[in-house]
């Protein structure tokens, strides 16, 4: 049973505690563990496989060809923006419709039993979802597109290394697998920066108004935080990539944030867990703030003493650390 929490009430649901370490690094070079990690993430229906498939389709049919990006022009820039807008609206909006409007799963596997906030002046329009949609669809989509457009221009003009599947098949596949690992590395360290009081109070607090997260909250950030968060995409300025790598990374950072902030652990189809979505790991961060800055892809929180395993002891340690930080 969930343990009582004095501040926010009991959890509606949580996985078995304490949380285990599912990262690829959990057992060093153990081949069986690494094979299991690859199978779960890349050889089965998963968030990243869905995003990769969408990236390939979008590269072939929706985004402008790299050749037209040699000079900045309104046509292909607007096309890129509209595709990104469509993906964000479809994924965040679709998840919100299914889980929170249609209530297709009720509260089964929902971490926080409460509904999204309404009548709360902490949010624009006194509405959590409208607030989240505003920041996501304005600053979020615009900056996501800006990073993508600049990177496409650099690729098209040969200012950064570009590969093809034919020219370097091993690196092409390996870089796809490593991109979420890079994203997790980057996210942990910029997230720690955003929790420095100077940055937190001015910028990151906007995202943290979402204690009870939902799909639209994932990419809802202050414009300065969007700039810092999306700088992860600059890796393509130095690491040899193909446009599919860039598109996959764009979808992972933008629309993918809606999937990890769904507020539910899994999507059920005919009462069977069919797609892993949000994680209790990050949900703990939104409730207790000074813990679990990264994600389960990298064990940084465990290594640097900022891990909350979901237990009452973990909550006590996190609150003590928070008190020390802001005293």
Automatic annotation (TrEMBL):
Q: Which GO terms describe its molecular function?
A: iron ion binding; oxidoreductase activity
Please name one Pfam family that this protein belongs to.
FA_hydroxylase
Q: Looking at the UniProt record for this protein, which Gene Ontology cellular component terms does it annotate, in alphabetical order?
A: membrane
Keywords, ordered alphabetically: Membrane, Transmembrane, Transmembrane helix
Q: Does the keyword Transmembrane apply?
A: yes
Keyword Transmembrane belongs to the record: yes
Q: What is this protein called?
A: Fatty acid hydroxylase domain-containing protein
Q: Where in the cell is it found?
A: Membrane
| GO BP term, pick one | lipid biosynthetic process
List the InterPro entries hit by this protein, alphabetically: Fatty_acid_hydroxylase (IPR006694), Sterol_Desaturase_Related (IPR050307)
State which residue ranges cross the membrane. 49-66, 78-100, 134-156, 168-190
Please list the residue ranges annotated as the Fatty acid hydroxylase domain.
177-306
